[in-house]
Each structure stands twice: as C-alpha cells, then as structure tokens.
Amino acid sequence: MGTSTDAILAYGVDTPWEENDTPWAETYDDLDDWLLEMFGVHIDCPEPKDWGNVTPAEGEVLSVYYKALREAIAEVPVEVVIHCHHECPMYLLALRGHVHTANRGDVLEVDQCISSEISEGQITAFMDFCEKVGLEREPPRWLLVSMWS
C-alpha cells in the first residue's frame, strides 16, 4: 500500500470544521444523512435490516438502497469536500458538480474545470446554505487543496 497525494480543485468556501468538530458529528452517523436532511431530500425505499450480515435477498435491498441514495445525493446542490489527511480531515463546502480531483500522477486541465457556468441563483442558494449551517455568508471561489492518504 502506497501513499496517495491528490489535488482537489473546488468552487466553494473553506470551513473551520475539523475531524469530529462538524455540524453532523454528534447527531448523524453519516455525512450523507446530514446533507439529505438539511435539504429535505428523502429516500423512497427501505433500508437493509441487517447491515452486517447481508444475505442474497438483503444484498438486493442494499443495492436498491444505495442506488436510491446516490440519486438522492445528486439532488443536493452542495457537497462536503474532505481534504488534508484521512486521519485528520478538514472540510470545504462546495457546489455539487464543481469539484475536480487530480489523482497522483494524473493531469487535470484547469481551464475546462473553471469554464463551466455557475448561475447567480446557484451562488445565492449556496450562500444561504452557508449561513444556515453557521458559516459566514460569503460568495464561493475556486480553492485548491490537497488530500494525503
């Protein structure tokens, strides 16, 4: 197993959140659950009953559940970007679809990333969400961070 050093380019804001000092740490088991609740998005399918011992029948339920989860998360216009190190994470808040990763050894064409259109409505909704979760109401900007794991 080697070390991975990745560059992440994201259109968003930095947060003061670190490791377990996040809005979701005490109440939610999962970051996705927090985001879905914050945006009022619900998953319309049953969760598997036993996550640890998945039978073939439960495996099908699990597959359907994760497909529905991916579709629900795609509706959330914000994503949390983990950076720094997996054992000492730090977080950015970014507009979904505007996070680009250059994995170790890969090349990322930045011009293509930053040329995508972002509407004033998306920016306003993003700043509203920042305010809702206790961050300063500031416009997003392009940020470059690293992830070492």
Characterization of the model:
Strand 2 (78-85) and strand 3 (88-102) form a beta hairpin. Strands 1-3-2-4 form a four-stranded mixed β-barrel. It is α+β, with helices and mostly antiparallel strands and 149 residues long. The longest helix has 20 residues, at 56-75. It is 31% helix and 30% strand. The mean pLDDT is 89. It has helices spanning 31-38, 56-75, 110-114, 120-132; strands spanning 5-18, 78-85, 88-102, 141-148.
Q: Would you kindly provide a brief summary of this structure?
A:
This protein is α+β, with helices and mostly antiparallel strands and 149 residues long. The chain contains 4 helices and 4 strands; from the N terminus they run E-H-H-E-E-H-H-E. It is 31% helix and 30% strand.
The amount of helix comes to 25-40%
- What is the succession of H and E elements? EHHEEHHE
pLDDT averaged residue by residue: 89
Number of domains: 2
CA-based gyration radius:
17 Å
Q: Count the strands?
A: 4
List the helices and strands and how they pair.
Blueprint (H helix, E strand, L loop, with lengths): L4 E14 L12 H8 L17 H20 L2 E8 L2 E15 L7 H5 L5 H13 L8 E8 L1
What labels describe this entry?
2 domains, 149 residues, four-stranded mixed β-barrel, alpha+beta
